[in-house]
Input
Amino acid sequence: MALVVQKYGGSSVADAGGIKRVAQRIVATRKAGHSVVVVVSAMGDTTDELVDLATQVSPLPPGRELDMLLTAGERISMALVAMAIANLGLEGRSFTGSQAGVITDSAHGKARIIDVTPGRIRGALDEGAIPIVAGFQGVSQGGKDITTLGRGGSDTTAVALAAALGADVCEIYTDVDGIFTADPRLVPSARRIPRISYEEMLEMAACGAKILMLRCVEYARRYGIPVHVRSSFSNRNGTWVTEAGLAAGGQTEDEAMEQAIISGVAHDRSEAKITVVGVPDKVGEAARIFRAIAATDINIDMIVQNVSAAATGRTDISFTLPRERHVLRRAGGRRRQH
Amino acid sequence: MISTSEIRISVVVDESDVAMAVGAAHQAFDLGSDDEDAVVYGGTGR
Output
C-alpha cells in the first residue's frame, strides 16, 4: 500500500464528464489499496477567464484582490470532485490551500511555498476520507492573506504536499501522455520520453516547457519525490521524472547508448527582446544597464553583446525578459523593442 | 539572437516563426518518432 498524491490539471476537470472520469480514477486507485490525496486545478480555462475579467475592471488589479479572485476557481473544482467521489460511495473532503496548510511568502501572484503543515490532510486520511486540495493557492505566513503560486502552481502544491506527507509518488495528470521531445501541440511527431532526470526537466521547464512548473521540479528534486506525468484521458505509461541514476537505471546499455544527447526542444512565447544601441564599449557600462533592470525586480533571461564597432567605440547590447506590459513600462529608459 | 550554456542552446525568433523553428530543430536533431502521432486529449493550450 502506497501513499499517492494525484494532481489533476484544468483540462482533466474541464467539465462534468471530466470530473466524473477523474473521480473514477481516484476511487480506482483507492480500491487498489492505496491512500490517495488529490490536488485539483480550476476547471478548464477558468483562471484565464477570471484574469480577463479582472483586467476589464482594472488594467492593473491589486495583487491581493487578484489572488482572492483566482483562488475561487479551485474551490469550484475541488468541491465538485469531492461530490463526484461521494456519488461513487466514498468520502471526498475538500480543503482550500490555506486549510491544507500550504504556507507561502506574501508575493501575490507568484508566492513561494515556505512550509506545508498538512495536519488536517493527515486527519482526513486517518478517518478514511479522500482529501481534495485546491492547487495553486496558499496563505501568507505573516499577513494570513490568500496567495497564488503563479501559472502551473498546482503542480508545486502537489509535490510540496507529497514531500510533507512522505508520499511514495506524485502523479501529475494532464492532457498529454507525458513529457515529449517537443510540445505535441506544435510537433505531432514528438516522442514521449519514458524517463527524464530532474536536471533535464529543470532545464526544459526553465526554457518554457509548460508541462511542469519549474518550482515543482525544483521541489521534487530537493525532496527526492518521484514525479509521474501522465494523461487522465488514457492509461498509457507516461513519463517518470527521477534522479539521473534512476533515470538511466531502468534501461539496458544499448538503450542508454541510443539515447540522444539532445533531450528535447522547449519554447516560450512570453519573451521580449530589448536592444540598447550605442552603448560605450568600456568596463562598467553593461553593469549600469543591468543594475537599472535589477532595481525593478525583473529577471533577465538571455544576454548578448554585439561586436563592437572599432571606429565608434560603441556597441549594442541585447537581452530578453518576460513580456509583461506593466513590467516593461516600469523599466523606463531609452530602448528599441523587437 | 543565439545564446548557449553547457547544456542548452537558445535562439530568439519572431513569435510567428515559433512553430516552424521548433519543428525544424526537432527534426534536425532526430528527436521525432515514426510511430503514431502524439495525442493532445484536451485543453486549449492557454
Observations:
- The helical segments of chain B are 18-28.
- The first strand of chain B starts at residue 2 and ends at 5.
- Chain B has one helix and two strands.
